[in-house]
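Batch manifest, entry 17 of 40.
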Amino acid sequence: MRFSEEFGIVHVFGAIDGASGVTGDSINMRDVHHVCFLVSFGALTGSSDLTVKTGASAGTETTALTFNYRWASEASGTATADVYGAWATSAALEITDGTYEDHLLIVEVDATEMTADEPWLTLSVDSDATVILESCVAITSKRHTGLTQPTSIT
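Output type: structure tokens
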């Protein structure tokens, strides 16, 4: 088994300074059961809100979803950076410098929580922070395994 044949891997947005806000590539959840966003934060000054929204087409952010999340309990580079806090939910998670700087955040959404006529899912972080270095990759649980990554996922 190859991991990339069992799960879809989507580069949502690259390592950027998202102080002017960032909207990730949309994921078409039509062929996906579940998505796990891995959002990595670096330097962070201030705070910004992270949202996950659905829409009828790619890039359309119509309906905010309440999503599940948890983050690494220690900063990257420490021995316990792979230990995560308890699961929580939010529809607009405030990303603050004292909590998320140099940490990995896990955001998960199940396709059954989405509106049927809005199959596209988009993760965004607003522009409220003065500095916010971030990147995001998503792992999807595909409906049909053993196939190569579909080209229509983003």
